[in-house]
Amino acid sequence: MRVSPDKVTDHPRLIKKLVYLAPLLVALLPALSFAAAEWTHNSLIMIGLTPFVLFVVVPILDWIIGRDSSNPSASDSAALTAQRYYRLLPMLCLPAYVFTLSFGAWVIANETMSPPMMLGWSISVGLVGGIVAINPAHELIHKPSGVERWIGGTLLAMVSYGTFKVEHIAGHHVDVATPKDLTTARMGQTVFGFIARSITHNPIRAIALEQAACTQRGKSWRWYTSESLGWAAMSVGFGFLCAWIVSRSALHASWLGGVYFVAQSLIAVALLEIVNYIEHYGLTRRIDGADDGSIQFERVNHRHSWNADFVLTNALLFQLQRHSDHHAHGFRRYQALQHHPDSPQLPAGYATMVLVALIPPLWFRVMDPRVPKPI
Fold first, then answer.
1. What is residue 294's predicted lDDT score, i.e. its pLDDT?
2. β partners of residue 260
3. Is the confidence at residue 331, as pLDDT, over 90?
4. Cα→Cα distances 214→165, 207, 227, 229, Å
5. Which contiguous run of DSSP H or E holds residue 120?
6. First to last CA, the chain
7. Least confident piece of the model among 2-16, 131-145, 212-226, 350-364
8. Which end of the chain is more exposed for a tag (fewer CB within 10 A), N or C?
9. What is the pTM of this model?
């Protein structure tokens, strides 16, 4: 009898299915923080619980739970790819983050908050946005389905970074680990300089890539057909939604909703760029000379990204830490990504490495000796 690919046949597979629900649980952290603060009458819990869970509890659990370097077989990989359950989870992050973003605006509308408290609240929501909006968007924008790509772009628009959809596919994946790629961190570059460069250049390069694509097709670029500007317009719409939610209350002016939207966007994008910094730091592709004497780089392979095989952070991030296989096989779905033992390996999961990256002397001490020389 033929077994449907959606049928769970053993307990380990069921457990693996359940752990991929983790990003949806992260979306609830701000609401849980607010509820805990109301119950304990301690407002600091409202702004402190989310970062505490993500950057204290998760790193500790990462070490306790440990690593998983196992790979699905070819037949298992095909079965996993066919399962609708895994395809649905990243798409469910769209309603999940709509709830989180709207709830965050509702709290601002209905709570008397000092500017530091409002900033702390926006940071908490933005950290969730980095995990629940940007990370599933990264998975979805690579997929052939137009629905998945649209959901991915909408998630990015919710954190004001729709240009990532264009630049990441047409720019980063083409030029990764070469001097042309502004989202490959150079050896000795600090994370703060990297974030500033990436955020300022990403929108510009996205437009330039659109213009180049139009030129190749023999067409003229028009602003009203620009994908990047279309996502930017959607971001403005989400900003007005947050302002409208705040305007329903007499406690605060509606413009505070817009400030909240921009603040959470900046935090989510900064978290994304810190992860980008970690993923390719110091790695370069070998230069291969072409027959005409021009400079050509070797084909992207699994040695051009840093990997981490920690179970919990991979579950939280839809296996983003199996990043080398993602670059070698961009259309491969997260549940079927492979671990490559000969890829550069991070000493800890992303939750820990984000904190290390924020202390440049510590980062250089930990990572510089691990950077492999081009082969």
1. 66
2. none
3. no
4. 17, 11, 12, 15
5. helix 115-129
6. 49
7. 2-16
8. N
9. 0.93
What contacts 101, CB < 8 A, 6 or more positions away?
A: 125, 129, 158, 238, 242, 261, 264
Q: How many whole angstroms separate alpha carbon 347 and alpha carbon 210? A: 38
Q: Which residues contact 150 (CB under 8 A, 6 or more apart)?
A: none
Residue 344: left (phi > 0), alpha (psi -120 to 50), or beta?
A: beta
- Dump pLDDT digits (tens) for 95-117: 999 999 999 999 999 988 899 99
* Contact between residue 307 and residue 344 where contact means Cβ atoms under 8 Å apart: yes
Give the residue among 313, 268, 305, 334 at the shortest CA–CA distance from 172: 305
Residue 187 is encoded by which pair of tokens? 């050896």
C-alpha 155/C-alpha 149 separation (Å) is 10
Q: Which residue has the tokens 């980063």?
A: 172
Alpha-carbon gap, residue 30 to 36, rounded angstroms: 10
Contact 339, 71 (CB under 8 A): yes
